Model the fold of this input.
Amino acid sequence: MGGRLSISLLGFFIVAPFFLSIGVDGNIAMNRIGSDNHSWLVTLPISLIVAFVFMVTKIKNVFVSKELLFYFTYFSICFLILIAGKGIDYSAIKVLVFMTVFISLIFGFQLFFHQKLKDIADLEIAENKFILYPLVIILLLALLSHYYFVNLQTILDNQEFFHKSTFLINSITIYNWEQYFAFVFVLLLGSATRLNFIVFGVLFLLSLYIGGLNSNTTALILMMLLFGIFISFKAISERLHPLSQKLIVFLIVTFPLVYLFFGTFIIELFNISEHGLIKRYSLVQIYFSEVDWYDLILPFGSIRPFDADNHNEFIEIFNASSMLGFILYYYFILKRVLSIKVKFKMQMIAILLVIFIGGITVENTLHPYMLVSLAYFISFYVAASKKIKNEMIAKTV
Done:
């Protein structure tokens, strides 16, 4: 298809929830359920494989970046310190690997979009092609698949079991259905704010609905926050938008620190009874009860007081790369996200919500599916903003 109905296959496979799983018996399948941790060795999204192939084609251009080489060197040093200090800490090493992958993908996708957007005069057409259409298609397919298989099970009178995360066919399930899948629709809603309000409203309700089906409380909260921010911008004068945007960005980025110190007060103030959120804040308290001053300097990993995941992106990054690595990593992210033009303010806010508010209870930039989606999403809007900037400079020359 061409023109306004053009859809990027790369964009589709980046956000498509296809996962390959390798079982303990060597079996390869695409229908692993997220809660099944005993029968499988590893599960990876197809999007990560697509991104890897994509990066191989860009590797000569990506790895000439001194900034990327700096991050790669620093994370390698963290890895060696961890090995020397404690031995192999697989959790911390996994975090370092995904941090490196996330940063590398942003470099790679930026190169891709800088080139692609040169040939597309209308950025709205480009946004439809690379962002909106792929995400809307996945949203609709996920909802249709869910109801088709749920109703089919009823018709068959439970003679055959279909999991609620079944996608397209019975042999495919959405592995990250409960914890991560709904977050990608927060990004969708950020982009959909430029559409007709009725269309946006429909997408908002459908996204809320799928978040409810997943029981993803954090994603639901982010969707409602994004909706509230969008309505607030509609209600105030456009002259106040830049100042309001700066205030909102400040509140989002600093909220994890507020949550760290005042989480108990916030939970009591809003009468939060959701067990998952309360349990995850208790993990934060347990973690920092074990921290000593020198833990701020070196990657430690050894202080983890439990075997399970912390369910907090900030703690995982701090734990694997020290305070310096923590600062460098989020500086890299903010440097790019904050360069996104005010034209895309809701898209930028959606990104920040997913990373900084979402990072309190999950690890979106460290999860294979979400880190690829986020890198792709960030890179598009950074490249689009640079295109706008270059066009403005050209007009003044």
About this structure: The first strand starts at residue 19 and ends at 23.
